[in-house]
Design brief:
The protein is mostly helical. 65% of the residues lie in helices and 0% in strands.
Amino acid sequence: MYFKNLLPRSIMAGDDGSHGATALCDTISLQNLSKRIHYGKFVAEVKFLESPGLYEAAIVEQDRDKLMELLTFEAIEATIKMRVEVKAKTFGHEVRIMGEEDQAADSTYKIKPSLSPIYKEIGSCHLPRKFKLNTY
C-alpha cells in the first residue's frame, strides 16, 4: 500500500537541493500518514465489533464494495471533504502581488483540493486479516 499507492501519489521526481528540509518534511508527512492509517484500522475494528454479523458476511463473500459501504458515514465524509476544500482554496493558492491580474479571475492552486478516503481502503484490507476470516 505504501510503496505502490501512497508514495507515488505524494512525491514528484527530481532534486530540489534541500535535502535536509526535504527529509524532515518527508518524515513528518510519513508519520502523519502512518497515524491516519492506524486510526483507520482502529475505526474499522470498532465498527466490526459493533456489528460483526454484517461485516463477517461481507468479508466471507469477499464483497469489498459492501465493506467500503459499511465503513462509510457519508454525512461526516462530506463535511470533512468540504473542510479540506476550503482549507486548500484558502491556504493553497498562488499569492499575487498588487498590480498583477485579479486573483478571482484566474485562481491557481498549488494542491488539488480533494480527499482520498485512505482509511476505508486500509480498513477493508485490514478486517479480513485481523479477524482471520476468508481473506481476499
